[in-house]
Here is the input.
Amino acid sequence: MSWACDDCNRIFGTWRSRQQHLDALGHDPLDYECRWCDDIFCDEEERRDHEAFDHHYCGDCDRLFQSYNCVKMHLNSRIHRGSDGILCPFCKTGYATATGLAHHLEGGHCSRAPFLNRDEVYKVVRAKDPSGLISKKLLGWHGSERYEVTGNTWNGYAYECYLCHRDFKTLQGLSQHLNSPAHQQPLYHCPNRRNCGRDFKTLAAVMNHLESESCSFIRFEDVQKTVTDLVSSDRRLTFG
Here is the structure.
């Protein structure tokens, strides 16, 4: 792919070299011209969205990607959004995505709120989501099951999970596996229940699903706002 200067018809191998030429000689570029076709847009955001969707291209990094999903993940990464877009309400650690913050809280990694875990986060979400938009209404639910592991799980060469038959080298590894969400009850579902309806075991998983925009229910930016409302305000859960 090559780019031309409309004023002097010089050809350039990259968009950046063409732009440097325009800046150096004072030539006027077309405002918000697509760097891959002849389309012209009203603002930078429209051009960026067009280049990502139609050409799988990131103009800021001058990079092409194999698919729209790949460039979308790149644009939503901390490379472009930074690492402190969403702050933990307790320790003020910054995260680039709602998924990152949810992992932080559900995993008990917050130094200022070590009492938080998957179950406690679910209780908070459930209280702010009485209509069950993303949280499942689990009647009679009192918390996730806890498993105790013993040497009886040794099968002759490894410690075996009796639920999925995976092998682990240590009892600690098996214990961590059994008490992870791997075999726990799903606590959440996609809010796009008519067209998607997937269930998820953690808040981080449902946030990751929504951030991917795979079911086209909500934009990435709105997911960030939703998780901020969940953890730092008294507002009930809504989307949009």
